Amino acid sequence: MKTRMAAWDVIVRYLQFLGLETIFGLPSDDLKVLSSLQSSDIRLIICKDQRNSLFMASGYALTSGQLGVCVVGKGPALTNTVTGLLEAHHLGAPLLLIALGTGSDKLGTKAFQEADQLSLVKPLVKWAYRVEHPDRLVWALEKAAFMAVNGGKGPVYLELPEHIADQAVEVDLPFQPLERLSSSPSTSDLDTAWDTISQASKPVLLVGGGMKLGTQGLIESLAVKLGAAIFTTASGRGAVDEEHPLFCGVAGLYTDKSMRTVWQEADVVVSLGSRLEETATFEWDVMLAHTPIVQVNVHLDDFSHQYRGVKVLGDGYLAVEHWLSRFHRQPDRDWLARIASCKEEAFRSKEAYIRQVGTMPHVHVSEVLDAMQAEFPEDCILVQENGLQDMWSYFYPYYRFTGKRFSIVPSDQTSLGFGAAAAVGASLADRRPVVALVGDGAFNLFQSDLITAVRYRIPLIYIVMNNGGYGWLQYQLNQLDFAGEPFRFVSETPLEHMNVMQHDGVEQIVIQEKQELSEKLRLAFARYQANKLVVVIVPVAIEDVHDKIRHIYGDFPVYEK
User: Thiamine pyrophosphate enzyme central domain: which residues (predicted)?
Assistant: First the structure.
């Protein structure tokens, strides 16, 4: 059926066809999109900051597995989204950014807010397109959605010039269904990889973010078949049950010292859905200098060429299914015992540390994580930042994603404020409770959109580790010798610099003493259940950092000798 409708009506109608209920953004001055949205079932979350809108849409996409959509204006409105695009690109978040653009009749005339928007975003998206003719709008929408959710998922960009936004568009309904394709690895590549895997007696499985939202239990079954230790990258957490006996923690920078022996003795590493970024491979040049790495990815750009081994192009879960069907000898009992022994040591070290800080004054982050594990439901979604103190949650077993718990973390770009904003999108995408563990620096960057979450009645719990500002920088500064403290990155009055907004929809809880932890976290969850946005502020000391990151140089810890 052919019909004619306004350009924004076409866009909104297509998003509704995809089944989207929520989109994010800050519309352009003409507000034409609002008229189209008013006659639809789609809710627009109007943000105060375009960067936050991209972060929210990413949180929505990563939690739901659906397309996240963001709508913004032109020029500086578009440039404000660049940090969000950078994060979505590295996270592999299926995201559609739609921006207004200068009309073709004004290009090159120094028109108001004119910018070469395609050139700005192209390096950060899978596909970018400017709709220059109304006949190309439907085609562009269908291709953009297809590109975002297939292959290596990621953001795409559509630019709607002003002259197209003002025209009627001829549409042939219904739209084409959005296809989700699977990429099967070749049998010969899988067999070549299996030759390497099957000869190993001390295997390690490394699970990356590309394995999120897959078939539950499949990876664990392969680990049992092989007798393999399971590690994840930071972004891969939640893809496997961390209560599994073979789960050993997070790879690279976040590996517990007790688990180093496993990496040093491993004779093959099977990497599923990971780009093997620097944090995941920290110390590999020392521990895995001669160990073959089998990499499985759906996108060519995701393969690392720093390591020798076999590369398999295709879906990681299909590769796992294939290898599960192959005959394999009994797992090496000594290797299983080694894994169990190292894991027990990691838990003993954690418990000893908890006992140690329990005798000290003030609340420690490890104690907060322990209380969160005990007091919050098994199915909660934890959204994290990557600051000095909230980074404690990356160090297994200090926090464990068990049962139905789900994790969202920033990419290796670690854009400050991502987790605080992404939590809003996650809460809209899923009925499970959402808890955001953030630093005060990140939370303050996000605060312009705290009222956005309140206005739309989005319940959340923020656990804010308050060290007075930018603790990562201050911690490094404290290791240097600057007489008289001419520079400072944190406030001497941490609680005062927070300035959490006063509103009936916001509940602020401050935890000052250890004895309050469990009771106040239970109170926070009760207020959350009453549809409140809860901000729990926990003052923490700058020196309260995990042992693995005590020695920092620049943006990365130095090697442990």
Answer: 191-315
